[in-house]
Amino acid sequence: MRSSSSVSVKGLPLKRRLCFLLKLVCYVTSVLIYCEFLIYYVVIFQCRWPEVKGGAHVSEKETSASVLKAMILADTHLLGEIKGHWLDKLRREWQMERSFQAALQLLQPDIVFILGDVFDEGKWSLPQAWADDVRRFWKMFKHPVSTELVVIVGNHDIGFHYEMTAYKVKRFEKVFNFTSGKLITRKGINFVVVNSVAMEGDGCALCSTSEAKLVALSHKLNCSEQKQSHSNKRCSEVEKLPASEPILLQHYPLYRQSDAECTGEDSAPPEEKNIPFKEKYDVLSREASQKLLWWFHPRLILSGHTHSACEVLHAGKIPEISVPSFSWRNRNNPSFIMGSITPTDFSLQKCFLPYESRVFTIYCAAGALLVILILAHFQLLTPFYFAQRLISKHKAV
């Protein structure tokens, strides 16, 4: 009898320790699941598609059916083998993958546009490294058949103008079905895809080919927008497209002096806003910008490259939205644009992703609480614990 009771008494502390250990494991696991998985759903769930105005004669059902839900992001900069540390790769790519997949499930966009600089080292990548980067991209940005993905080329994908080669351009085109001067028409809405790296204006072979395609597309769009009574012989044999003013999609922004006029929490830092932009490097040249405006008379321009948000008006009426980077490596507060678009109107709304600083704060708070729980369990939390223990030993002696 004594031996049996002795065993049960000795086994009690062990059971308590195992129970406490199990609680700690559950606590740590819960924190990890929230910070690395659930937080993306919690934050993106708060985003809503903006409403776009419809004509008074259009029913609500018809208006909803004619609205194209477009998700726009930029500058993912998947790290390569040269500059990318494996831990940095793992962290950043996990963050972008979870954000993108959560956005697809919660928002269900019709189409997604990525505005260039998909890769960080595409301008340097050898064939094997390029293949590995492409494989990781398709894993991160996998999407259902119901959602279309359109990827625009950026300078980090094929190099700046002086680094750009036909080989780099063709391998990008092959993977992403990209062509400068390509027209994408969905629900009567025209999107014009531009290789802004090839808008150097120096007559290089790639630049000339790209500009020729843009001029030809401009002619088609302009003929399609003309009223039948004003059509001329030049438009008589041209394929008619939906008579909707186009939206330009490109990596470089059109020319602007700096980000001085940009506002918002995700605009450039104050110390960077007044730094003048360099033409053909930070923004397109004045000449190239003017050409695109003349050719297409767009109703909206969407660009990336600067990693910060900005909204400017060209010619006093044409808005351009610079979309911030989608990577936490470039920003503490990445975001993407949600656009509700019809052939005649559009409405845009920004959706922020979890702030990395807040995730870090949650981890720190959870770590501090974990330490407190461990100290409390082993009765080490009382400041006078050690003094009481010494006194009790002294009395026992």
From TrEMBL:
GO molecular function: metal ion binding; phosphoric diester hydrolase activity
Matching Pfam families: Metallophos
CC annotations in GO: endomembrane system; endoplasmic reticulum-Golgi intermediate compartment membrane
Domain Calcineurin-like phosphoesterase: 69-308
Record keywords: ER-Golgi transport, GPI-anchor biosynthesis, Hydrolase, Manganese, Membrane, Metal-binding, Transmembrane, Transmembrane helix, Transport
Membrane topology: Multi-pass membrane protein
Cofactor names: Mn(2+)
Primary site of residence: endoplasmic reticulum
InterPro entries per UniProt: Calcineurin-like_PHP, Metallo-depent_PP-like, MPP_MPPE1, PGAP5/Cdc1/Ted1
Domain of life where this protein originates: Eukaryota
Listed transmembrane segments: 20-43, 360-386
Biological processes, Gene Ontology terms: endoplasmic reticulum to Golgi vesicle-mediated transport; GPI anchor biosynthetic process
Family annotation (PANTHER family): METALLO PHOSPHOESTERASE RELATED (PTHR13315), METALLOPHOSPHOESTERASE 1 (PTHR13315:SF0)
Function: Metallophosphoesterase that catalyzes the removal of a side-chain ethanolamine-phosphate (EtNP) from the second mannose of the GPI-anchor protein intermediate. Participates in the glycan remodeling steps of GPI-anchor maturation to allow an efficient transport of GPI-anchor proteins from the endoplasmic reticulum to the Golgi.
Designated name of the protein: Metallophosphoesterase 1
